[in-house]
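Researcher: Before we compare anything, I want clean individual predictions. No alignment, no superposition, just each chain on its own. First chain goes here; please echo the sequence and then give the structure tokens.
Model: Echoing the first chain and its structure:
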Amino acid sequence: MKNMMGLINLHENHDSLREITGHRPLAAIPFAGRYRLVDFVLSNFINSGITNVGILSAGNFRSLADHIRSGKEWDLARKRDGLFLLPSLQTGTVQGPFPHDLADFFSNLDYIKSSRQQFVLLSGSRSVCNINYDEAYRFHLDKNADITVLYKEYEEEKVKRLSGVTMLGTTDDGRVVDMEICPVNVHSNKLSMEMYLMDRQLLIDLVDASVSRGGTNFARDCIMKNLENLKVYGFPFQGYLARIDSMQNYFEHSMRLLIPEIWQEIFFTNGSIYTKVKDEAPAKYQRDAQVKSSLVANGSVIAGRVENSILFRGVKIHKDARVTNSIIMQKGEIGPGAVIENAICDKDVKITAGKKLKGEINHPIVIEKGTVI
């Protein structure tokens, strides 16, 4: 797939994740012990042979820029093509169901125009999966499509719990004839993964035409309004998909990683998932440590009890402390005798000796970055 470039659009609404996105974009949310959400998109691109990748920045971009740096970990630090950070004209966080992303597409058209590849694959960062885009590319060519939208079919009961999503309606041959963005009542079971494949020149033309007519949102003004004029097809993704669009979904999909089959699929099915390398010692388990059904990242030191939990890099669990059904992010510290259950602790959270915090399995308690309790 050397004939395809990748674009990562960080203009994503994350109002329902504001407890952990107040100081970082959605793409920089820590996930699975050592990773950020953007790692999955970048790894899928490079595993599919896409080596020209542009990241359309939005909001507070500093933490993400620090994480991806030159793109070396994803083999994107290249003399030709490679990783490009595309500046945004906007400040502040992305809000509302229709982010004003078209202005930033338009301001970075020179990068898109100067790229050598014929096709472009546009993706957000909230859809976590392990996918090789080669099959979707062949589908796009076989259908002679103008735009191919990747989607995931959900069971009817799961669809009812979805919110803030884009749903597709298709014919029997896969033609997209309806598109609903953030519907109150969902009428389809086909969830858009917010991944779009199209000809690079078509993207340029759509952005130019939409902006000149007052358009502000890519999905609505470039795709949904052109369903009758363009051949838009939907490609069904058959693998595991974790859509991170709320604190409950973040917690639920994180806990599902403790199921070996899901962990294997999301990290190894179509290639490895890469992340920023940190030279830290392996996790240290002291004499009284008890760890069961958990993911523990390097640099952690455990002297207490950890069960059904995810510990990120540099976490310290002191003696007689107990952590159950919880996520402890980087450099968190749980003091002696403290009890944490059904909780999400952001970076640098410190729980002092003897404190007890307990959320509900369907409504975990969230401790913001740097908090000391």
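Researcher: Okay. Second chain, same rules.
Model: Second chain and its structure:
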Amino acid sequence: MRYLLIFLVFQSCSSLSNSENEQCTKDSCSALTSSNYYLLYDVNHGEGFNLRRDVYVRMANLVHTLRERTSPESNWTLVLPPWGPLYHWFSYNLQRAQLPWSLFFDLKSLAKFVPVIEFEEFLRLSSPVLTIPYVFALQHFNEGWGEKFEEKLEIRQCNDEAMYEKRSDNYYHGWFFGYEDRVRAKQFDCLSAQGFVTVLVDYAMKNLTWSQEINDEHLLKSVMFDRAETLLHVDYGGYNYWRARRSMRYARRLINLGNRFRSEYLNSTDIHDRTYLVDDWTRAEYLSDQALGGPYLGIHLRRQDYVKARPEYVPSLEHAARQVCHQLLHLNLSIAFIATDANENEIDEVRQHAFKICHISTDQILTYRPDGKILEKILDGGKAIVDQWICAHARYFIGSYESTFSFRIQEDREILGFSKDSTFNRLCGDNEGLSCEKSTVWPIVY
């Protein structure tokens, strides 16, 4: 089950900066006012890295809408939820949590769409214990969508067991990114929700008030929406969807690692591949079909849980090798790069099948396997981004069926200016042969 937490937090801090290096502290912050607003969110532990990136786009657009609909004096900022631990992260950070976004993304670039701040930095603006006056757990209506689609919200009895418990201190306690001792809630209700994520805008503005009691306690004026991934993208594939997505530039050190691998092993550089991006995405121009890509085939081969969850769409290792051979011959390429969650034995099996089928050597099928020191620094999330960055620059890309990992690569390729034909492809299941229905095309909008 997917869970999403959103917190709308109201506090004033006149010296708040969106820089990665500058921050507002207790000493430099002004007293609480109603001029600055903070929106926080989180996703259930079971959700993966790339679905969480999709949720970020939803939340960034929610903040963008709030900034448009409220008065100019109301400054909304998005608080970034710490990363980890995640289901698909297996190495050094298996049990690690509270990882900042700056490990993986360029915060200055994010802030060019909506203002952002790390959660750890946000905690430093508050008292030792952050108290959220209201918590709402969003849930589906028991009776379903009904005969027609409509947006609606209604306080109801909880459909499932609540994730927050009321303790002897008269506050509700829960996970809160692993900061259980530093965050609590004053009130909790379940809110049945249906519609787009922006349905929360009017609800927050019309239905929430803060009593004098809360003001006297010097608590942060805030509201939290849990399980809000129930709500839909407000403009999926539209202009502001792509503005938020384009703002998600990766951390420079991860880009450098990917570029170094491309240069050393794949004869690929941005100049030769026609994949150069300007530093400021807001100044970028439409790059339709401009990119050529490096002289290699990029593949995302999803394994693990997908083998059982999508058996008709996930190829066997032999059939995956057969498709590698087919595409290399068709594209007149000699090297394939595979991003995968398969283990080394499975990758070796793909190489062996490819050698038998089309006589390509084992060193013509490459994967990115950083050494222990690098992996300890970039963690599994960083490795995933490097894998995606390399696939995004390939001459031709083939993804996995309905995989958010593949979706993010396809989005990167749209941003880089690759053709649709070289981007929206997928591996075929064993019963689909070598030609199957392509991935859904979501073209970039400028």
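Researcher: What stands out in the second chain?
Model: The chain has a mean pLDDT of 86. Additionally, The CA atoms of residues 289 and 419 lie 5 Å apart.
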